[in-house]
Amino acid sequence: MSTSPIAIYSPSEPTGLPLAHLANEEDDDELIRILKAHANLLTTRGHLSVDSKIHEANNQIKHIINILMQYCKAKHEELDTTKSLLAYTYDRINAFDETFTIIT
Questions:
Q1: According to the model, what pLDDT value does residue 89 have?
Q2: DSSP letter, residue 34
Q3: d(CA 84, CA 74)
Q4: What is the pLDDT of residue 48?
Q5: CB-based burial of residue 49 (10 Å sphere; 0-12 exposed, 13-18 middle, 19+ buried)?
Q6: Distance between CA 31 and CA 27 in Å, rounded?
Q7: Where does the source fall among the domains of life (predicted)?
Q8: Distances from the Cα of 27 to the Cαs of 8, 40, 47, in angstroms?
Q9: Statement: residue 11 has pLDDT above 70
Q10: Predicted pLDDT at 21
């Protein structure tokens, strides 16, 4: 009886450009949803035997995604605060400049 060779997966970086619908996606939450769906797909499709190590890896991927999203949201909030402070400072400088120009 002849058996087919088992394909061996070699982890690697993606090649080529990202798919347009991913590269153009501006909604972080949608990208995370897609990533989580693909993580689930890895454990539910094909000829992959899902054992406890794969299940744990799947869970860790999702935890890492959630952690990264929390970091990203915190950075977005920090940038929004900085942007607001810069806008306020710019407005105050302009108001001072206008007042100073009127006086002189």
A1: 92
A2: H
A3: 15
A4: 60
A5: exposed
A6: 7
A7: Eukaryota
A8: 35, 20, 32
A9: no
A10: 66
Dihedral sign, Cα of residue 38, residue 44, residue 48, residue 52: positive
The residue ranges of every structural domain in the chain are 29-103
pLDDT tens readout for residues 25-58: 667 777 788 778 877 777 666 556 667 777 777 7
Long-range contacts of 68-77, Cβ-Cβ distance < 8 Å, separation of 24 or more: 69/28, 69/29, 69/32, 72/28, 73/28
R_g (Cα) of the chain, nearest Å: 25
Q: Single out the residue of 46, 31, 40 nearest to residue 62, CA to CA.
A: 40
Q: Give one DSSP letter per residue of 35-103, joined into a string.
A: HHHHHHHHHHSTT----HHHHHHHHHHHHHHHHHHHHHHHHHHHHHHHHHHHHHHHHHHHHHHHHHHHH
Work out the pLDDT band at 10, boundaries 50, 70, 90: low
Amino acid identity of 46? G
